[in-house]
Amino acid sequence: MEDLKLAYQGDIKKKNKKKIDFGYHFGKWFVFCLFVIYAVTLLFPFLWMLINSFKTGEEFITGNIFGFPKQWYGLNFVEILTYEVEGQTVWSMILLSLVVTILGTVINVFLSACAAYCLSKYKFPGRNIIYGLAIFTMVVPIVGTLPSQVVMLETFGIDESLIGVLFLYSGCFGFNFILLYSSFSSISNSYIEAAQIDCAGRFKTFFTIMLPMAKGPLIACSILQAITYWNDYSTPRLFMPSDMTTLAVGLQKLQESLGSGSGDYPMVFASMLIAIFPILILYLCFQKRIIESTNAGGLKG
Amino acid sequence: MSDISIENNKTENNQKDKSSRRKFFNFDSKKHLSKKTRDYIFIIIMLLYPVLQFVITWAFVNINSLMHAFQYGRIDGTYEWAGFDQFVKIFDDLFNSQLNTTGVSWLNNTSVILLNSLGFAVITIFISLPLSLLFSYFLSKKMPLANVFRAIFFLPNIIPVVALTFAFAMGFDSTYGYLYEFMRMIGFSDNFFSVWPTSQIMVYIYCIWAGLGYNIILLSGAIGRIPKELFESAKLDHAGYFKEFFHVVIPCIWPTIVTLVILGMTNVLTLYLQPLLLTNGEGNTYTISLDIFLATASYSPAQYCSAAAKGLLCSAIWAPVIMLVRHFMSKKYQGVDY
């Protein structure tokens, strides 16, 4: 009798399990389909732009919107480089974006590393205050201070200039700081001790031992920061002189003058793709690292 | 303070080396500085710029902004005390403004800004978050092509926002858009990007579409860090997938969920690029910070002051709410540790 009961119970459990399994598998494949659809909606607009960027403006306007180009026309990518918006060629926008991105990233990551190293490896009065303030300003949103940033740069005489933008970019108590702080903390102090036994000064220890040891996190921070600055819209828009437009801001102008203005959309598509291209390369090379540090950054926030 | 000293065991040789080097560089005076002093010199040099930049920016911007909130700005760049006038004007606009292009009688052009902004918290917390939770759960369950999906879902985070909004809006363009006819079919009006509320709905759809990936990356990362033993012991206790999700996964990734809720609530105060670029400010899609951004972009002192007052008022009301939510949410599942 007992045996029968047990067997019966086992049966019910099996049945339940089957039910759950079915529900689970159904859910899984349903979500899989949703994933495919979502992925397609993310990729399709850009593939569509890519294909259309190889058409002449005329072909696009006259109705070939979804088909492949009758003749693959690659000159859009060349012509757009010399196209002028408000006295500035796209070519010069790209160069300016590169300058802003590289300088901004180097300054920001280097200063973050300096600050993070000091705060993680040396104990001194005020250390906790600095760390606490850095976290506080990241967590508490204070809005409406944008006009005051303009006033500040005007007061310092660096408004509407590259220096002003770099000054704002050099604020280093952000995610990079937190990330580098934790990675410096995890490096053992014995390396510093060993370096000091070898008579290396503090700066030498920092530059030749600690920075190379934190290479991984430093690269990750730099890539993410470079992507952020390359894409940044508001800071260059508000604080760069109007005849020095970075590509991210210039895209908006191009879209207005070429797209809505003259309807030459293939040229606009080409410019968008040019702006995306360098980032895509970076992303393909460092995809794992980028996603990992986003994870770390998001958690700490 | 005592930790400042990192053990200093120099051999005689090393000391000779160092002193000869000092002589060579003419650093003799430094010889007399104690180790602690040299530590401080190092710290000061390293932290001088970062701390100075931080303090100057933070103090200047916040003090200046606080002052602006109680001032009038004139075109010539001078300011005059206004007391609480700017705040009174905000409430007056909010409740009494007759300017209304929304087509909804109980709104006006100021209150719609508030409604739009609050909407971002609602959609991120109640639509994006549950969706991405569900997605991430399945993504962590040996979903085929999981890494490919992850890589694709992350793309919106790295593409310039101008390009992303353009790609999105192009799909709905009345002449070239591949989705325009579909939107017309489900009852949207002709120019739905410039008429409220469809314009705002489009902005919300964009934000869900572009923001889902980031949530999924964070959440599936968090789920991936849950120890496998927990899932196994749940299985031994005959917990179904439903139970597993609510009793194992949710408590374990609670801190990440709290972070995402807080981020969603912060959006109310900080989100402005998406509506600006999608609708160019047409169709009543202003948010609180878009209003402030455009005031800044106008470079007019009068607008600076009203923007500062709006920012101060909204932060003063909303930031404590965020803090409270954070506090209470963190309390739930507080003991979960693994």
Describe the structure.
Chain A has 14 helices and two strands; from the N terminus they run αααββααααααααααα. Chain A has helices at residues 2-52, 57-61, 76-82, 90-121, 127-139, 146-156, 162-169, 175-185, 190-197, 202-213, 215-231, 234-239, 247-262, 265-300; strands at residues 84-85, 88-89. Chain A is globular. Chain A starts with a helix and ends with a helix. The mean pLDDT of chain A is 83. By secondary structure, chain B is mainly alpha-helical. Chain B folds into two domains: 2-69, no CATH class; 91-331, MetI-like fold. Chain B has a two-stranded antiparallel sheet. Mean pLDDT of chain B is 82; it is low at 1-13 and 21-29. Chains A and B meet through helix 1, helix 4, helix 5, helix 6 and helix 9 of A and helix 1, helix 2, helix 4, helix 5 and helix 6 of B.
Shape of chain B: globular
Write out the strand line-up for the largest beta sheet of chain B, numbering strands in chain order. Answer: 1-2
Secondary-structure element pattern of chain B, one letter each:
HHEEHHHHHHHHHHHH
Briefly note the structural class of the backbone of chain A.
mainly alpha
pLDDT under 50 segments of chain A (min length 5)? Answer: none
Largest sheet of chain A: 2 strands, antiparallel
Our count of helices of chain A gives 14
Termini separation of chain A comes to 60 Å
| % residues in beta strands of chain B | under 5%
CATH fold annotation of the largest domain in chain A: MetI-like fold
